[in-house]
Each structure stands twice: as C-alpha cells, then as structure tokens.
Amino acid sequence: MTRTLKLIAPIAVLTALAVPSFAQDADIDINGDGMYSYPELQAVMPELSEDDFTSMDTSGDGLLDADEIAVATEAGMLPA
Ligand SMILES: [Ca+2]
Questions:
Q1: pLDDT tens per residue, range 46-64
Q2: Could you tell me the distance, in angstroms and rounded to a whole number, from the CA of residue 21 to the centre of ligand 1?
Q3: In angstroms, what is the span from residue 25 Cα to ligand 1's centroid?
Q4: Domain locations in the chain as residue ranges
Q5: What is the pTM of this model?
Q6: Which CATH class is domain 21-80?
Q7: What is the 3-state secondary structure (H, E, C) of the chain?
C-alpha cells in the first residue's frame, strides 16, 4: 500500500459510515437529513424547475426521500 492510500483509506471508511444506508449524495444533501429539498437540488442542478421537483416529490412533503430519489434516478430525472 502506498503512503497516499494509507492516508486515504481511513477517510473513505469514515465517509462510508457517515452516509445514510440509502446512500444519498452528501454534496447535494447539505443539511444531512438524508433527503433532498428543492434548494439543495437546485444548487447542483440549476436547470431543475419546481415542476420537475414536484413531479419527483410523489408524497408532496417538499422533500425527496430515498424512495423518491431512487424512482427519480431510475426515470433519468436525477443523475445516478
Ligand atoms: Ca417527499
């Protein structure tokens, strides 16, 4: 193992532990609640319209949970 890998490996483990079991992207989920809000998504997808978000938010609670994210990703509305 190279010196660089020895440094990176523990960080990778910590990152894996910090991610919820449904593995949302921490770069999008700014507040770490495991769900994507419209502002969080729009920060990384500026072209995302509120209508697009609403169509992905099937429960209508204003947040995309793991199931809604999975469905939207399958449908190609969110990057995998
Ligand atoms: Ca929702």
A1: 999 999 999 999 999 999 9
A2: 18
A3: 16
A4: 21-80
A5: 0.66
A6: mainly alpha
A7: CCHHHHHHHHHHHHHHHHCCCCCCCCCCCCCCCCCEEHHHHHHHCCCCCHHHHHHHCCCCCCEECHHHHHHHHHCCCCCC
